[in-house]
Amino acid sequence: MASTRRLKLTAAVAVAGALVAGMTVALATSASAGTTLGASAAEKGRYFGTATDPHMFSNSGYMTVLNREFNQLTNENGMKWDATEPQRNQFNWTRGDQLVAHAQSRGMLVRGHALLWHQQQPGWAQGLSGSDLRSAAINHVTQVASHWRGKIHSWDVVNEAFADGGSGGRRDSNLQRTGNDWIEAAFRAADAADPNAKLCYNDYNTDGINAKSTGIYNMVRDFKARGVPIDCVGFQSHLGTTIAGDYQANLQRFADLGVDVQITELDVQQGSNQANIYRTVTRACMAISRCTGITVWGVRDCESWRTGANPLLFDCNNNKKPAYDAVLAELNAGTGVPPTSTPPVNPTTPPGGNPTTPPAGGAGCTATVSLNQWTGGFVANVRVTAGSGGTRGWTVAMTLPGGASVTGTWSATASGSTGTVRFSNVSYNGQLAAGQVTEFGFQGSGSGSGMTPTCTAS
Ligand code: XIL
Q: Is pLDDT above 60 for 6?
């Protein structure tokens, strides 16, 4: 997992010309920062996107808004299974390629949506089952993720696989009937095909702590523990006239598992509460450093899939609605993403000096731990902050309570699993400038209460 992680992060820097620099271009050419959704989000280290479809690209009023406001695009339908593989092993890339080309020409990011889903499957796949469907599905993931390799910021690898209602379990579908491991098989195939993309699980009715979101939470926790390559969870957020009071807490508990969270398909029923609900969602994302971006499911009310709900930020005459103003204000008021987990672009001699002589005492580094516990287990997220001399490498020692043991670690290497465990940096996060912060995490069984981290820098 650590090597996968390193590959992703290193590669993310390598393709900076396509992605990060593109974002800079968008900032430079759009209206000044703080006056559009995309620019305001980018100032805070995030994206603000929309779903669209290339058939809208000839509509000049619509495109004026799209190009001005958004720095991330999702293909509303054109990258789905029925669109991309209408006949078995015959692929149609037209709409997806058009969307990617437009995004790249404007320095926008692309979310890929969606590799596997029980809906919008081509007829030939609907008629398959068992191992034949499994191999067709994995082939689909491999071919599609390979085609757009290096061009996708985040992929919805699996969409809507959990059941509504109180079960917290999987939804029945032809894919589910191929075996419960179909989701992890899809993530592993996507990771092999496009190691740079963030790989997300995406679903709806997950807008608070409820049975469905808890079922997904347990799956993500299990994936992290077993090294299944999942990077993010998408919260569609198709909302009505109310919003769960624990919307933010729910996002936070996923972030605490060590995945990014993204708002992927936001739209809100028109009504007296619309602007407030948009405000609440935006504020929640801005309050969570691992909430990396927000995507609304369309630009203008008249193109929305929710006919009559008028759930978007622009009316049919391209005018901003009150909800737009609420979102923009929250983006501008929000907190920037701290520069965590970012590998040094050009490693240089650390400001800490001679690597064989650790900086004295408290100048080295400090660490804090935040715990997310449940009966029988916990996830610990640890923040490492470099002292005034910076670090060339670091080790955080923690003594686990009796009976507790480490079952999985990310962004660090653990020595031992019980008693006093030492977590050392991996290759990309050891070198920190003075005051710079990085994070790692681990999952454990038993109770994690009372652990005090001690950080040593080299
Ligand atoms: C919707 C599109 O917006 C419609 O145009 C299409 O007819 C049906 O799909 N959850 C998802 C999206 O993940 O793909 C769906 O998009 C909306 C619900």
A: no
